[in-house]
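Input sequence (244 aa), recorded before submission:
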Amino acid sequence: MFRRASRLLLSFVMLMVGVAVGVGATATTAQADSCYTWGRTLSQGASGGDVTQLQIRVAGWVTSGERLSYDGQYGARTTAAVKKFQSAYGLAADGVAGPATFNKIYSLQDADCTPVHFSYAELNKCNSDWSGGAVSAATAKANALKTMWKLEAMRHALGDVPLTISSGFRSRACNSAVGGSATSRHLYGDAADLTGSPSFCRLAQQSRTHGFSEILGPGYPGHDDHTHVAFDPSPYWSAPNCGI
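Predicted structure, token format:
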């Protein structure tokens, strides 16, 4: 509630600034945002850091088995992901990221750039500084952010049902303490173990269309009590009891 109130206050302040300088807010003008503000309309052929920021937020809107690269290149796959994002939120699905698309993203993110329904604390119950894993602390935290945006897409596709994360980033010490694999993606910060509802099989099946390349669930050894999703350079899905 506090984070939503903060965003509303920021929007009000920006509106007042616009009025003060004689620039009224219109439906075709994107808001400013406390996390990141896009300064131009983006479409296929564009490139740059602003494209990468967009890719992080739409990477969960892909087809089954597809993964969107965070390469700063607005190609056909990014266009398709933007279209899916736009359609999912009732926007004109033209694949062009302009004010309407950015305003929807702004409404979905908090000041620390995490999506509104997830937090860094949920993705790291191991330590406070993201250290001790298989990658640098900064990389582990950045990977967790990408995972959260995929989960935000999955959550919306499931009807905006809450998703419960039982485990995210783990240092080597935390991973060892729970008997995790020495090669676990949890060490990289890009994994999340999901529990609660929907069912584990429903979670495993849905995650196939949200950019996760590693999916382990019921029927896979040690995964009958949760569904594990992650980004793995060598894609692998296994949830035999769920038809995966």
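Checked by second reader. Confidence is low (pLDDT under 50) at residues 1-5, 8-27.
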